[in-house]
Specification:
Elements: E1 2-6, H1 11-22, E2 28-34, H2 38-48, E3 52-55, H3 62-65, E4 69-72, H4 78-88, E5 92-95, H5 98-115, E6 119-121, H6 124-132, E7 143-148, H7 158-161, H8 166-169, H9 179-187, H10 189-202, E8 209-213, E9 219-224, E10 230-234, H11 240-248, H12 261-264, E11 270-271, H13 278-289, H14 293-309, H15 315-328, H16 337-356
Parallel strand pairs: 1-2, 1-4, 2-3, 4-5, 5-6, 7-8
Antiparallel strand pairs: 7-9, 8-11, 9-10
Helix pairs in contact: 4-5, 5-10, 5-14, 9-14, 10-13, 13-15, 14-15, 14-16, 15-16
The structure holds magnesium ion.
Magnesium ion (MG) binds next to helix 6.
Length: 358
């Protein structure tokens, strides 16, 4: 199976490379694309010898021409253009870029339907739901329950939250991820994004999607059915499992570590404290508003998180910035990529004005 991997030097990209490294009989790379890390790209090229490799701005459609699967692991808004391009080439998509569905869900799903392209989730929660549905996207369900680790600040008071630093936020308790998504996990923005992703992937209504805190990250999500039965997928938090499954399903490749329930002893669940982490509700509300509202939310969030990581703003200011930008930039129809990109541009501009002045 030939994979075109976009975002090859990021956290998910490196784990995709590891899956390919461990299964050389099954997988190879036809193309490797990264955003900035030319050095990292060179090392991957020396190891995997793809036909196409580049670093920087989006290239021509030829990136996807020779592949069986387009693996979109770029982070942020930048992933959307690649996802649309790969769909345009009629390639099956393994989707690890959340923003493609959060910001461009309408465009992506419409284009995929038109082209008959399959979009397979890589996010652990959505992979768990896919598995619980028996890999049937049209299966009937009552509700979807996304699990959330709760991030490093779950039980912090508001006073404590006001003082946390980027270094504190980057210590995720269970998952090993890139900086942006780790901060998004700490604010619970990430879980709001996953609600929107679930809506698009499984055609769920917003009132059919819930989130529950599960600090151990062993239960990766659940599907509730009409008769009260709930099916879950369990496993240690290791992204390589949903990565390889997205490529091979319904077949499964061997895994390294089998779940030891007795060693785990207990699993815990609690309500998601949405009142303390307003980013979650802001994301869900933007998802419900639809159109370009999620693009505005995301553009503001990317700018605010960048400022937070540089030590420029406090943790609560991330949510405040998103809220202020949503109030300033009006929602439009997400009729085209250009409309969404324009909303993203305006949101970033508004966010930068709020964050840095003029
Ligand atoms: Mg996730």
């Amino acid at each position: 199976m030939k994979i075109a991997l976009v975002g090859c030097t990021g956290n998910i990209g490196k784990q995709v490379a590891d899956v390919v490294r461990r299964n050389p009989q099954t997988f190879s790379f036809s193309a490797l694309v990264c955003g900035r890390d030319a050095e990292g790209l060179r090392a991957l090229c020396d190891e995997f010898h793809p036909h196409i490799a580049f670093c920087g701005e989006i290239g021509a459609g030829e990136v996807f021409e020779d592949c069986d699967v387009a693996f979109i692991a770029a982070s942020g808004f930048a992933g959307l253009a690649y996802t649309l391009q790969a769909i345009g080439c009629g390639k099956k998509i393994a989707l690890a870029n959340k923003e493609s569905l959060v910001v461009g869900g309408e465009l992506v799903m419409r284009a995929a339907k038109e082209k008959g392209v399959e979009i397979v989730p890589v996010d652990s929660e959505h992979s768990a739901i896919f598995q619980a549905l028996g890999f049937r996207r049209d299966a009937a369900f009552k509700k979807l329950v996304l699990t959330a680790s709760g991030g490093p600040f779950l039980h912090y008071t508001e006073e404590q939250l006001a003082r946390v630093t980027a270094k504190d936020a980057l210590k995720h308790p269970t998952w090993n991820m890139g900086a942006k998504v780790t901060v998004d996990s700490a604010t619970l923005l990430n879980k709001g994004y996953e609600v929107i992703e679930a809506k698009w992937l499984y055609g769920a209504k917003f009132d059919q999607i819930e989130a529950v805190v599960h600090p151990e990250s062993i239960v990766h999500s659940l599907v509730y059915f009409e008769d009260g039965a709930a099916l879950a997928q369990l496993g240690y938090p290791d992204m390589r499992v949903p990565i390889q499954l997205a490529l091979t399903y319904p077949e499964r490749l061997p895994c390294e570590r089998e779940l030891d329930l007795a060693a785990l002893g207990a699993l815990h669940f609690e309500r998601l404290p949405a009142e303390k982490f307003p980013c979650f509700t802001l994301a869900v509300e933007a998802g419900k508003a639809g159109g370009t509202a999620p693009a505005v939310l995301n553009g503001a969030a990317e700018e605010a998180v960048r400022a937070f990581l540089r030590g420029g703003i406090s943790f609560p200011r991330i949510a405040e910035t998103i809220k202020d930008v949503l109030a300033r930039v009006p929602r439009e129809e997400a009729a085209s990529f250009e409309a969404v990109a324009e909303a993203d541009r305006r949101a970033r501009e508004a966010a930068r004005t709020l964050l840095y002045g003029n």
